[in-house]
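Hey everyone, long-time lurker, first post.

I ran two proteins through the pipeline my lab uses and got sequence/structure pairs for each. Pasting them in order. The first:
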Amino acid sequence: MKDISGIEISFKESMKKNGLLVMFSCNTCPVVKRYQARTLEVCKYASANNIGVILLNSNEAARDDGDSYNDMKEYAKQQHYNFNYVVDNNSAMADAFGAKRTPEVFLFNKEEKLVYHGAIDDNANGPDEVTRRHAIIAIDEMVAGKEIAVKETRSVGCSIKRKG
């Protein structure tokens, strides 16, 4: 997949010692924008815990409406992304993962096993109303070698804009 840096990367290349955090995201969804600080927090937290991070923009049908490759580069620059942000051509990875929304998190352990899938936390309205930080708790449990207490939650946000 083409990263905003211009290079082609894979999930395997993005994986670090403790696993990989994959998040389906975009530039245009109002929920993604409300979650932006929390997205950055989770991605930095994953990186600090030796977990690779890759964000995928699967909005193939919105490439001309704010989710183009150039728009992605500009958005990432504005948001100070220091992790992979890639184009998911034809929503192929979203289809393979069964991803439906932005933002939507998939956390894999070091054995490449999916251990958590769902929302970043339990409140899309704002960080002050969050009572459970699903992704961060799952990262903590995974790194500690514990069973993930909540393996799946319902992600909220905009639907991925697939072509056709």
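...and the second, right after it:
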Amino acid sequence: MRYAVRLFAVACLMMAALLPATAQEKLAQEKSLTVFAAASLKNALDDVNAAYTAKTGVKVAASYAASSALAKQLEQGAPADLFASADIEWMEYATQKKSIKDGTRVDLLGNKLVLIAPKDSSTASVQIGPGFDLAKLAGDGRIATGDVTSVPVGKYAKAALEKLGAWNAAQSKFAMAENVRAALTLVSRKEAVLGIVYETDARVEPGVKVIATFPQDAYPPVIYPFALTATAKPRRPTTSPSSARLHPR
């Protein structure tokens, strides 16, 4: 709950910083704002979007998916005003493809990687460290996470397991999902016996339980950068929102 409240507060600051008065006036006339956001941000940003609409009268249309899919859509010309990625790499990809506006990127949030199981699973809490045998823990079942070649949570998961020496034995057991919420659903429906997701996603799904937290030095920091897109509504320069940066751990 504390994370959700902090994320809500920071996202509101982000909205205020990236969409200043002149842009808000224009948006009020157009009555629309499109946000492309990583799937793991859905719950908190849905609340932010509702509050923003209530205050400004501007309807926010949010599209949630894997950061990779959203970055590719922006590259292909999909219209959006704001891009919120679940990792730095896909934001940098969007920057290279000229899909976001120079000088508007802000690294706002952080997250943790956790191991989950279905809520009523008999699997007890475990400690994760060097030599961790994920394959043995999964038994004959599947392990859900995002696609390890493109979806941020999957890339973090693979990096952590490689660092811990657990990837080679476990990789054949993975069920690759299109985004972190899809991986979460596989576990909650018991279609996978284990899953690797973000801590915040595990907290909002009553059908799963956290059985371990990955050591934070086993994978790159999970950072959520936000930026205006190249097709965003006009804005004027404003004070940098760097003071709103937050990396809850």
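Reply from user beta_strand_b:
Welcome! Quick read of the second one: The mean pLDDT is 84. Residues 95 and 102 are 8 Å apart (CA to CA).
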